[in-house]
């Protein structure tokens, strides 16, 4: 372990130790030895995880491995703390099940989880995402073409985007029916404006010089659009896509709270809470988190492939 | 005109500006970027524009390229208006920064104007090869701009302007961002290229030695309002080795340019 | 001000489309009711009916405006039937959540920028946290907080925080890293401490990013507060209004609550915009 | 006074009038209680609140309470102010459904969150598949209102005699346009709105004492509400923090609620309990509960004491 | 050493580097930025570093400033290690771009290092006045950087480096972004300042005339690996009017620098 790593780690660990000591002491005074021991175990795991990670971070070695291992250790630490807390403090499983119970339920409910995944993610979120993003792209080009629209539509769009989706979802379910179409509609509404705003901004992100260059070639509007402005807008478009990817899943799930066929992740979550099958609820949340992160990751990868030329993608070279 | 040397006989006129004025309306009031500018550029000339910052060099070049509209006066490029000339793709324009598109390879960047102008795919490939060789970049076709040094990028951007066969080359401080040694080298190459292709070149620079070394004609400008204060016909031969810059003749012209500049310059 | 004419035009177009859509969406019900009473509806009658139903599928703009007027201007602001009262309830949770979220986001960002381990471990999980549907865990958050004796404004604020810390983390990490290597080196040549580097360089440089993320965070906070109002028991606030409207099919009430929410969001974001302009101007960054 | 918290199953409305009346009329105070009433909502599982310590007593339906018990929530019925069930299935006549025999091939909408259990039991008793397959019905999860029925997104929808049914009527339909199936009439009714607490609470004599006083005062409230429906409705309206309820609707609701509480003095009738369990156990392939929870799920100790 | 002029007698050494090596580990393998560098800089010297891009000029300056750690060899600044010198605030560093903070006025920018070093408020104000006068910017204290021209900004950044009384000034291409005429003017002012303050200055540049005009000693470097190829002691007098640049002696030194550069230069 290098001195540098020690220095960089010191403030965090010091903070953890201080907090730990305080809470253990408080536990001892107010709730007895058992609780204090659990608290102690919690902090032991937390500090242990942090130390392991600092050691990993300070080690010379392959960056790609570290970028994978360190968040993993961090996540495992969180899970271990969760397990210890739930079991140690005796939290009722109908309030918060431990990760181990969730894992068991997950492995036993794969068919249900898969059916729900298809209904919500593939049918609802994905289709809405595609429709919403394409629509936003096309609108952005139109809006960009007519400055009048840009000045008129964007402020109104900002206002509309501020409408909370919990309010919009029931309305759209009423309009588009119970099946995935209404979920897709909610997703379309949610992803449209982030996408539009980013794309419009991106289409403006060319330098005067680049545009002048096209003019010296006597290039027309569409040529300039396809050869210059769309490629230049890609980093912004991907920024929008990334935001949209997290929104899409949330939108599809939330919309199912307001009416659905008897399948889907949101459906399962909302009904299972009613039946206190909290382990299933969390299994669905795990699916959502994995699907969401994977979706995000896939777009990030695609971004890397498409905007490889952008300085932000070219790594931290000099 | 203050130069004593005779004008080269009857070079056919490629660019002519007469009584040109251009005023920008800004928030702080009008800015007189060009005032009563008159100039003739003959075929095959290499004209340098030099002058302090803000004297209107770029503006003048942009007017020729139909990127800016004069407030009054007329400009003719190849005998027609700048707009017609632009639409006829009569000139290539090289900007101060290389301005290559980072998402295209060097080859792709040079191909860009050819694609836009609807050249045949095969012809495109040939041209790219040709101009890359011309600027000494053969073999770099597949690289991306950011994989090249500044000097190489600038050469690629010149290649891009050469790719479609425009007779006129407008260059706005193309070497401004480069170090002196690379710059010397590119100057030599540019001269060679000019000699080979017989193009007419308008070249903006801040560097006195560069202007003197390259040009057949040096236009000295002065700001507030932007105007031409001196036009110096070079007495140097067309054939110019690098060390011509140590000759008294060169220094004499350089001195004259510096005096002209000094006269019109405000220090900040 | 250049935006006034275009905005008005766009609004006018939207209103026109809205009226047309109201006719289209509400017509089946109107025809249905007429059929039950063995009547035929003329075109004019149909239009009038679709624009004045009690529980329309899509209320006409004037119905929403009337409802807004009645529930804001004509009711005392302390009345439970006043939308201003409910907006205030939501706003207070929003502001609390916004404060908490900004503080948490800020702290995380500072940690990520200054502590290498945090830099490498926290970000993927922060992203993952945002892929969890908040509506699903909001009730659990409320219950868990209830179990440890926290209730009232705070649970709502916590949910609001959950949504609002994210944009702040992302923006502030970017912002605190925005000083160039040269500027950081410069600090080193003056032998500045980390604290000085933070206060005199990183913090001021991050201001434009800060405000951009604050705007997003504010909008997210409002959504969070509304989500938080659903499982706290439909007690009060715009979220409760939305819910209650939904149980009784009061579409007009839903729409006016929605517009109120959007107006509150717009006002808050606008306020941050003003703050931004003032701050940046005082910093000389607003040219 | 002793503090207590009651978690309702739904938003403030006349369905819970007894508790609001008891609070407003000072019946709780008379018993030296300081009761906080927490309204519910679509995403609140009262059991969670109870077990999480956010409430001492809750109002719940027996089916969802038993399902929760099976999932490890040690909750016990301590009183049953509602004698009969208000649950029913309302269909539009135009879809041609007249008897349960007509259900196959139709689209039924129900609330979930535990409320679907009686419907599933009924369908399985009728022998209909619920997955939309040939000869069965299709079940949709609908939001807690009657719009889907009015907009014809479903052909039948779950309604309560005291609430949603009247919303349909208010929307402009007449009873003639509708066909209703009351669970009570179909012999598949399950117990609704009972009071529940945790096993742990029942082991604490002090708590038991508080619960006794609570149930006594609550029943007093219920009986007062039955006798003075209009006043009760007004009290409910005053306690509605959303300001969204209307007087007409609450008064009518109070009238209907009075019919459901009429037969009860607060004590659970074990026969009703057994009937509910039978209905739930008969739910075919995917039963709501898998075993008879037995007597541990209810107790008469509190009501016996309260009614002395 | 290739210069024939005698070394100035026994100037006390301010900076000395011996057997200095610095290798960067990059993804594409190690980059030898400095190889076996030896140099002595005496008190009051004005040393210019010139060489093609990537030859390690900046790296060398950064090593002196303790912004980069050498792989081997030693550097002493004022007789101590660079780190100690940095902590003792022994030098002021001027970067290529002015790098003024846009949210601080010119005065605020100059005050910044003083605040960091904990100077007394009153002393701060005095110093700011002093150095602003020194660089001819009196009266601009309240202006923001973007209200000034590029040349003025660069002067402000020099003022900032002068504000705390470091004896050594390290300047990395401070005038690289400016046009030739402004640059001439700043060169004159820098010389005057140097004469007045007796500071030791290390100055990186790409421009041969600039290096020759300013320096008492010119260090020519060459890349891959970065090393010193020539050290030229200037024979020009300390007093240097601008037109000294047209004298044969000047041209002679310039020529020698150019030859040295040419030798080590690869054109890309
Ligand atoms: N689009 C514009 N709007 C307003 N003023 C402008 C515009 N473009 C240029 N100017 C002004 O016109 C004058 C001439 O500008 P121009 O760019 O032609 O100068 P230049 O000689 O190219 O200077 P430099 O050497 O700095 O490139 C300047 O005062 C400039 O500020
Ligand atoms: N942080 C770094 N990591 C890796 N390589 C570096 C780093 N800094 C500089 N180099 C490399 O070291 C060499 C010397 O760089 P340096 O910046 O000192 O050159 P320079 O002479 O200042 O060039 P220029 O005239 O372009 O400023 C170059 O090849 C450069 O790419
Ligand atoms: C937690 C929970 N939420 C809603 C209901 C359904 N429900 C029960 S009573 C009622 C009011 C009817 O007017 C409704 C909608 C439930 N059973 N449990
Ligand atoms: Mg210019
Ligand atoms: Mg350098």
From TrEMBL, chain A:
One of its GO terms (cellular component) is plasma membrane. It holds the Pfam family BPD_transp_1. Keywords: Cell membrane, Membrane, Transmembrane, Transmembrane helix, Transport. One of its GO terms (biological process) is transmembrane transport. It is found in: Cell membrane. Signal peptide: none annotated. InterPro entries: MetI-like, MetI-like_sf. It comes from the Bacteria. Its main location: membrane. The keyword Transmembrane applies. The chain crosses the membrane at residues 12-29, 35-56, 68-90, 121-143, 155-178, 184-204, 236-260, 280-302. This is NitT/TauT family transport system permease protein. It comes from Salipiger thiooxidans. The keyword Cell membrane applies. Residues 129-306 form the ABC transmembrane type-1 domain. It is a multi-pass membrane protein.
From TrEMBL, chains B, E:
The keyword Transport applies. Residues 17-248 form the ABC transporter domain. The keyword Nucleotide-binding applies. Pfam families: ABC_tran (PF00005). One of its GO terms (molecular function) is ATP binding. Belongs to the ABC transporter superfamily. InterPro entries: AAA+_ATPase (IPR003593), ABC_transporter-like_ATP-bd (IPR003439), ABC_transporter-like_CS (IPR017871), ABC_transporter_ATP-bind (IPR050166), P-loop_NTPase (IPR027417). SUPFAM superfamilies: P-loop containing nucleoside triphosphate hydrolases. This is NitT/TauT family transport system ATP-binding protein. It comes from the Bacteria. SMART domains: AAA (SM00382). Keywords: ATP-binding, Nucleotide-binding, Transport.
TrEMBL record, chain C:
The chain crosses the membrane at residues 7-27, 85-115, 122-145, 209-232, 252-275. It holds the Pfam family BPD_transp_1. One of its GO terms (biological process) is transmembrane transport. It is found in: Cell membrane. Keywords: Cell membrane, Membrane, Transmembrane, Transmembrane helix, Transport. It is a multi-pass membrane protein. Its main location: membrane. Residues 83-276 form the ABC transmembrane type-1 domain. InterPro entries: MetI-like, MetI-like_sf. One of its GO terms (cellular component) is plasma membrane. Belongs to the binding-protein-dependent transport system permease family. This is NitT/TauT family transport system permease protein. It comes from Salipiger thiooxidans.
């Amino acid at each position: 372990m290098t001195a540098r790593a020690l220095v960089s780690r010191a403030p965090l660990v010091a903070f953890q130790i201080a907090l730990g000591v305080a809470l253990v002491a408080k536990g001892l005074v107010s709730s007895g030895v058992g609780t204090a021991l659990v608290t102690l175990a919690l902090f032991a795991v937390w500090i242990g995880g942090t130390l392991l990670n600092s050691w990993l971070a300070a080690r010379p070695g392959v960056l790609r491995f570290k970028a994978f291992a360190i968040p993993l250790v961090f996540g495992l630490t969180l899970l271990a703390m969760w397990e210890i807390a739930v079991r140690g403090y005796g939290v009722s499983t109908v309030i918060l099940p431990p990760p181990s119970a969730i894992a068991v339920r997950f492995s036993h409910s794969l068919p249900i989880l898969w059916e729900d995944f298809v209904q919500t993610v593939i049918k609802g979120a994905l289709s809405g995402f595609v429709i919403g993003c394409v629509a936003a792209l096309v609108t952005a080009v139109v809006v960009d073409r007519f400055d009048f629209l840009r000045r008129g539509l964007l402020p109104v769009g900002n206002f509309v985007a501020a409408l909370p989706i919990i309010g919009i979802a029931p309305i759209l379910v009423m309009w588009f029916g119970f099946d995935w179409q209404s979920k897709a509609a909610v997703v379309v509404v949610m992803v449209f404006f982030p996408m539009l705003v980013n794309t419009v901004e991106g289409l403006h992100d060319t330098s005067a010089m680049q545009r002048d260059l096209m003019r010296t070639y006597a290039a027309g509007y569409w040529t300039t659009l396809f050869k210059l402005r769309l490629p230049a807008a890609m980093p912004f478009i991907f920024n929008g896509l990334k935001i949209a990817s997290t929104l899409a899943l949330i939108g599809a799930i939330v919309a199912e709270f307001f009416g659905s066929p008897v399948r889907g992740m949101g459906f399962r979550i909302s009904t299972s809470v009613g039946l206190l099958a909290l382990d299933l609820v969390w299994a669905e949340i795990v699916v959502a988190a994995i699907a969401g992160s994977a979706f995000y990751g896939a777009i990030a990868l695609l971004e890397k492939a498409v905007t490889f030329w952008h300085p932000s993608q070219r790594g931290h070279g000099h | 005109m203050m130069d004593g040397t005779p004008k080269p006989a009857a070079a056919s006129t490629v660019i002519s500006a007469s009584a040109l004025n251009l005023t920008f309306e800004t928030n702080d009031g009008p800015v007189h970027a060009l005032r009563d500018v008159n100039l003739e550029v003959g075929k095959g000339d290499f004209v340098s524009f030099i002058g302090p910052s803000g004297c209107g060099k770029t503006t003048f070049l942009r007017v020729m390229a139909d990127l800016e509209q004069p407030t009054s006066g007329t400009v003719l490029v190849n005998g027609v208006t700048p707009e017609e000339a632009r639409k006829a793709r009569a000139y290539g324009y090289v900007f101060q920064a290389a301005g290559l598109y980072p998402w295209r390879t060097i080859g792709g960047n040079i191909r860009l104007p050819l694609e836009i102008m609807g050249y045949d795919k095969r012809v495109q490939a040939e041209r790219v090869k040709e101009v890359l060789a011309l600027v000494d970049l053969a073999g770099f076709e597949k690289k991306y701009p950011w994989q090249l040094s500044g000097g190489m990028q600038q050469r690629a951007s010149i290649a891009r302007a050469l790719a479609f066969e425009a007779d006129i080359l407008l260059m706005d401080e193309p070497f401004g961002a480069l170090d002196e040694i690379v710059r010397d080298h590119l100057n030599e190459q540019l001269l060679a290229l000019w000699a080979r292709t017989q193009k007419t070149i308008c070249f903006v620079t801040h560097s006195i030695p560069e202007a003197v070394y390259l040009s057949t004609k040096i236009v000295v400008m002065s700001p507030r309002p932007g105007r031409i204060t001196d036009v110096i016909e070079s007495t140097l031969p067309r054939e110019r080795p690098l060390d011509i810059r140590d000759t008294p003749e060169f220094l004499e012209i350089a001195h004259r340019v510096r005096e002209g500049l000094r006269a019109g310059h405000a220090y900040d | 001000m250049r935006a006034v004419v275009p905005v008005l035009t766009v609004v006018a177009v939207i209103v026109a489309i809205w009226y047309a859509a109201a006719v289209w969406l509400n017509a089946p019900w109107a025809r249905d009711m007429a059929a039950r009473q063995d009547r035929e509806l003329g075109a004019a009658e149909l239009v009038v009916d679709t624009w004045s139903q009690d529980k329309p599928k899509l209320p006409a703009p004037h119905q929403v405006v009337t409802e807004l007027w009645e529930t804001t201007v004509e009711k005392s602001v302390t009345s439970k039937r006043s939308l201003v009262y409910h907006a205030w309830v939501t706003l207070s949770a929003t502001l609390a959540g916004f404060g908490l979220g900004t503080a948490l986001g800020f702290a995380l960002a500072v940690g990520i920028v200054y502590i290498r381990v945090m830099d490498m471990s926290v970000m993927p999980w922060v992203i993952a946290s945002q892929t969890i549907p908040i509506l699903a865990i909001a009730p659990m958050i409320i219950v868990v907080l209830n179990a440890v004796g926290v209730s009232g404004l705070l649970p709502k604020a916590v949910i609001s925080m959950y949504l609002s810390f994210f944009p702040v983390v992302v923006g502030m990490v970017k912002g605190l890293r925005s000083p160039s290597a040269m500027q950081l080196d410069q600090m080193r040549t003056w032998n500045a401490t980390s604290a000085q580097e933070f206060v005199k360089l990183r913090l001021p440089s991050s201001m434009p990013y800060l405000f951009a993320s604050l705007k997003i965070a504010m909008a997210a906070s409002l959504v969070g507060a509304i989500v938080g109002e659903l499982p706290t028991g439909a007690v009060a606030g715009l979220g409760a209004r939305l819910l209650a409207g939904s149980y009784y099919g009061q579409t007009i009430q839903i729409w006016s609550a929605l517009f109120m929410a959007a107006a509150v969001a717009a006002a808050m974001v606008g306020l941050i915009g003003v703050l931004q302009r003032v701050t940046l101007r005082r910093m000389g960054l607003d040219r | 006074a002793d503090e207590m918290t009651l978690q309702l199953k739904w938003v403030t409305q006349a369905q819970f009038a007894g508790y609001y009346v008891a609070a407003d009329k000072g019946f709780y105070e008379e018993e030296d209680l300081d009761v906080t009433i927490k309204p519910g909502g679509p995403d609140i599982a009262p059991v969670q609140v109870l077990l999480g310590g956010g409430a001492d007593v809750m109002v719940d339906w027996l089916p969802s309470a038993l399902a929760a018990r099976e999932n490890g929530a040690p909750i016990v019925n301590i009183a049953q102010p509602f004698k009969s069930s208000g649950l029913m299935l309302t269909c539009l006549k135009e879809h041609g459904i007249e008897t349960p025999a007509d259900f196959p091939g139709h689209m039924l909408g129900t609330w979930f969150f535990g409320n679907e259990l009686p419907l599933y039991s009924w369908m399985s008793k009728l022998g209909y598949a619920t997955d939309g397959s040939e000869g069965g019905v299709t079940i949709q999860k609908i939001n807690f209102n009657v719009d889907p029925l009015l907009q014809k997104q479903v052909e039948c929808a779950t309604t309560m005699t005291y609430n949603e049914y009247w919303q349909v009527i208010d929307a402009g339909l007449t009873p003639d346009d509708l066909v209703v199936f009351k669970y009570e009439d179909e012999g598949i009714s399950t117990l609704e709105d009972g009071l529940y607490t945790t096993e742990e609470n029942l082991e604490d004599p002090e708590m038991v004492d508080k619960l006794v006083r609570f149930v006594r005062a609550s029943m007093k409230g219920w009986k007062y509400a039955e006798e003075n429906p209009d006043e009760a409705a007004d009290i409910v309206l005053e306690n509605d923090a959303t300001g969204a309820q209307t007087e007409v609707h609450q008064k009518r609701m109070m009238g209907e609620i009075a019919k459901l509480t009429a037969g009860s003095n607060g004590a659970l009738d074990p026969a009703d309990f057994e009937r509910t369990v039978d209905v739930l156990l008969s739910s075919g392939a995917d039963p709501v509960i898998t075993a008879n929870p037995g007597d541990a799920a209810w107790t008469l100790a509190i009501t016996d004491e309260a009614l002395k």
